[in-house]
Amino acid sequence: MAASLAGRDLITIDDLSNREIETVFALADEMSASVREHSHLCQGMIMASLFFEPSTRTRLSFEAAMNRLGGRVISVAEMGNTSLAKGESIADMARVVGTYADIIVIRHPWEGAAKVVADYAGVPVVNAGDGGHEHPTQTLCDLYTLKKEKGSLEGLKIALWGDLKYGRTVHSLACALARFGATIHFRPSPGFEMPEHVLRKLTTEYSGRLERQNGPKDVDQDGLFPLDAIYVTPSGPHQLANIPAVGIQMEVEKGVDALYVTRLQRERLGKTQEGGGSAAAYPVVSSELLKGRKFKEAIVMHPLPRVDELAYEMDADPRAMYFKQAERGMPIRMALLALLLGCREGSTTGARGQEYAQKKGYPVYRRDTGIGCPNANCVTGQESETRYIRPEFQIISSAPLVLRCVYCEHEVHPQYVASSKWHQGILEKKRYYRADNPLARRISPQNVLAFDSEAAAQAAGFKQGGRSGKRVPEKGA
Ligand code: CP
Q: Taking 90 as the threshold, does the pLDDT of residue 269 lie above it?
């Protein structure tokens, strides 16, 4: 039996177990079979719809869903029309809106903003897209479409195409696919590869194996974005883990079940002033481009909106599924709202997914040693939010020390470490070490102090420790 979803938040796709995802799908089936029969289910409930970035599908399908369920909607579609424009923090906004509404759906340009709203609102919060971080309800629409069109979510082969760096939909989707045992082919636009912290998560959290491809980084002879990496689930049917490169190439030639196309996220390039790749070299996905064997059985997906990356003539191709993805957004969001609001309990009939332990219990790093999230778009770095948010990280590796921001999931690799315990108040023993010093491995997560420079370590009262690893702390210290 899946745990009740009533009262819960959906900030990342990992907030739902595989079984809970299947539970949402079972109710979405019911909702789409008889949309008008649920018109009293959420009567008396109010959904706050806060969209601080443009949206057509997500906002309108959530609002339509709440209306179809008999609930009411209060909404804001521009930050300039709220007191955020006067410098109010999103935490204060969340506290207030949480007293007006029974559930909050928020889209915000800052990564981690939805988590902050969830931390303060006191009512369930749904992330409708937080910067380039995640878009978990789009992933529900994508998985639902894959299940409908391919019959099952288990062991699929999916190619992710385009801007994998800033595309939040593919960040959520890659994690979900890995959990359902997929093989994932990464075909990024050069310079827009999947962020390393997402790739790391695939291997550390979901135990799969990543096969990097070191071929040319340009569009290939078939006009396709180059294959940058393949993720393989060990227990999956496409067992590539032990076969050589030639085997991987044969496997790639066999084709994929779906091609997931994304547009170049131009709005994020402008804000962060980075990118690196050539926006001009972005092949247009068309029936002609997909005429080869690799894509014969592949449904073509896209979260929409499309710009130039997907030909309009593709719409008549039976493989095109992007408008169905958008259409399915409403029953999916009806089901989700009803479950989070506690207006319906989920039925596990048809919910065969494993009770996947979606969140690993990493130790947390909360010390004030000057380490901050390196992501300029993270909520923790915004002026209005630094008054109350303190950087917080999961310690996902001790040797070397790797910290993951709990808000945006970007990683920090501190250069210097010390122990809060070894010196036991004795000044002479207060030593810091390079993070790659073997001694650093001996510091337990609850005692580790991380610094991004020697100056920061020295300012905290530590002296330089042995670089060779010969200086061993006293036994029992
Ligand atoms: N797929 C998606 O998020 O579309 P909108 O930006 O129109 O909501």
A: no
CB 100 within 8 A of CB 368: no
**Residue 164's beta-bridge partner residues?**
none
Alpha carbon distance 237, 158 (integer Å): 13
User: Do the beta carbons of residue 258 and residue 299 sit within 8 Å?
Assistant: yes
Which residues face 411 on adjacent strands? 404
What is the Å distance from ligand 1's center to 55 Cα?
Answer: 5
Average pLDDT estimate for 201-210 = 89
Instruction: Give 367: exposed, middle or buried? Use CB within 10 Å, 0-12, 13-18, 19+.
Output: middle
Distance CA(193)–CA(400), nearest Å, equals: 24
Does the C-beta of 172 come closer than 6 Å to ligand 1?
A: no
Residue nearest to atom 6 of ligand 1 (CA): 55
Q: Is 417 helix (H, G, I), strand (E, B) or coil?
A: strand
- From residue 109, alpha-carbon distances to 90, 92, 272, 343 in Å are 12, 17, 11, 30
Distance 126 CA to ligand 1 centre (A): 14
Total Cβ atoms within 10 A of residue 250: 11
Confidence of residue 423 (pLDDT cuts 50, 70, 90): low
The reply to whether ligand 1 has any atom less than 6 angstroms from the CB of 305 is yes
Tokens 């960040």 found at: 171
395 has which bridge partners?
403
Q: Buried (b) or exposed (e) across 60-76, using 16+ Cβ within 10 A?
A: ebbbbbbebbebebeeb
User: Measuring from atom 5 of ligand 1, which residue has the nearest CA?
Assistant: 55
What number is the average pLDDT over the span 146-175? 97
Q: Ligand 1 center to residue 33 CA distance, Å? A: 24
Closest protein CA for atom 1 of ligand 1: 303
* Ligand 1 pocket residue status of 138, Cβ below 6 Å: yes
What pLDDT is stored for residue 422 in this prediction?
65
